[in-house]
Amino acid sequence: METYVCGDCIDDYAVKQFIKQQAEELSCDYCQQRAEDNPIAAAIADVGDFMREGIEKEWSHPEDEAVAWDSEDGRYVVSTADSYDLVDRYLVLESEQLRNDLADQLGDNDWCQKNPYRLTREESWIFDWERFCQQLKHETRYVFFRVENERDEYSEGVQNPHEIMDEIANIISEIDLIRTIPTGTIIRRARPHHENEHYSTVEDLGPPPTELAIHPNRMSPSGIPMFYGSDTETTALREVEQTGFATVAQFVTQRPFKVLDLTRMPDVPSIFDPQPSYERAPLTFLHNFLDDLTKRVVKDGREHIEYIPTQVITEYFRHVFLDHEQERLKGIIYPSARSESGVSYVLFFKNDDCIQDDRGIVSDRWLSMQTRSVRTLRV
């Protein structure tokens, strides 16, 4: 007897769409949902066939990949998964029976990644990025672009430090994460301080002068000032050190400029999507890269080492990267590490690039601090 499942029982968008297109029954055998007129459920056998097509894009069977069997250990010499593992890997299901039925449809056999003796593209990029971070932190901080790592026959893709940045840039260009910040955009900035300190001018509340930029930040090393800001006052306050008080101000963009916008990163497409908008491998890598870029760093004296890879990447996008119109970027927008839905800005502007609105208009400045927006808060 055929079993039928509705789209509400499965969380993957591609499988949901397939069920909607192939629905032929009015009721679901798993959640007991029933429709009056239009079919809502597709045959579990058809759903299993559809899922198998997706899984076979990246997975195969050990015997088809000529994987050796270790008779002493009683297992294949590469990592394998069974059909239940793959269902759990790609779907979140509330029904245990549905999980079992889908696994049965995929077959009672082992699966391994295609070309199992090589790293996948995303694994290779992630491995290279981790090695890149390790090298910058502990091996060759200033001449990394001249250091060539040995290639190994089992990994694909980019392996040398300077190439990893070019690869990141290529992926970002392909996904089109460059956007223009329009004139009139409001960006909030906060400066922490103690109770007896008072700040009110753009010199106080804009980026510090070079000689006072003595503390390393996520995107900028000591001695290189940049403008850090946020989309909201709440996020701006959460991003700064908590010293008891903070003065906040609004800055308004005076003219348009281009930035790398990492908040617009598309989701990794489903493995079951027959026509994904983007490749899974580059996006999987880029999401891992973004997680590393925005992770919280504990202020324990070692933060300057943890910041080095993101500082180098920032410098690359500031001084090397050119968009498709051969223009340089003026900053990076990224998800806040301290505010769940907040957005943070690092703009490549110094204090001289900012003006205060009650001092008149200066055409060559990028940001204007709104004097009436300045206020001090207890935090």
Structure summary:
By secondary structure, this protein is an alpha+beta fold.
Terminal-residue CA separation: 65 Å
Number of domains: 2
Average pLDDT score: 89
Structural class: alpha+beta
Q: If strands are numbered along the chain, what order do they take across the biggest sheet? A: 8-12-13-14-10
Could you give the count of β-strands? 17
**Secondary-structure element pattern, one letter each:** EHEHEEEEHHEHHEEHEHEEHHHEEEEE
Number of helices: 11
Shape: globular
Sheet with most strands: 5 strands, mixed
Amount of beta strand: 15-25%
Give me the Rg, rounded.
26 Å
* Helical content (DSSP H or I, runs of 4+): 25-40%
Q: Which spans of ≥5 residues are poorly predicted at pLDDT below 50? A: none
